[in-house]
Amino acid sequence: MKLNLQFDFLVDKAKNTITLRREFAAHRQLVWDAHTKSELLDQWFAPRPLTVKTKSMDFRDGGHWHYVMVEPSGSEYWGRLDYLKIRPIDNYTALDGFSDASGNINPDLPRAQWDVSFQDLAKHALVQTIVTYKSLADLETVIKMGMEQGMTSTLERLDDLLLTLTK
């Protein structure tokens, strides 16, 4: 059954931001857990047909999540999220970037600050993510890389996971 859930993908070129607002058919605590626990992230945080695997995660202020997205062919795309501030089940901010297998940030690809907030919405949860880039060029680079399509597919995978966890 396909649910009619809110999904906004808003680009503000004046502020170099992408704002994602996404409703999920689950309670806020479960949606928070899916965003902050590696064993759950590993089940959804990649657009189809890629898979994701956590190399290391330390979810705390000053901690990080180092992960790899893997294509069926075996090609790997490494990423690193450095957590700045965490307010459990309400909000976290982090720096997101492409990295290598050792966790070194790739300076040739855009890095962004993510401000992710979680709210109750009746029996559902609403997650708002504001992604801020240093420049318009960085913002345009990720848009050309397929950020909207990738996030759409990735969040649909989260929908699927949440359905299995709420049964």
From TrEMBL:
<comment type="similarity">
    <text>Belongs to the AHA1 family.</text>
</comment>
<protein>
    <submittedName>
        <fullName>SRPBCC domain-containing protein</fullName>
    </submittedName>
</protein>
<feature type="domain" description="Activator of Hsp90 ATPase homologue 1/2-like C-terminal">
    <location>
        <begin position="26"/>
        <end position="162"/>
    </location>
</feature>
<dbReference type="Pfam" id="PF08327">
    <property type="entry name" value="AHSA1"/>
</dbReference>
<dbReference type="InterPro" id="IPR013538">
    <property type="entry name" value="ASHA1/2-like_C"/>
</dbReference>
<dbReference type="InterPro" id="IPR023393">
    <property type="entry name" value="START-like_dom_sf"/>
</dbReference>
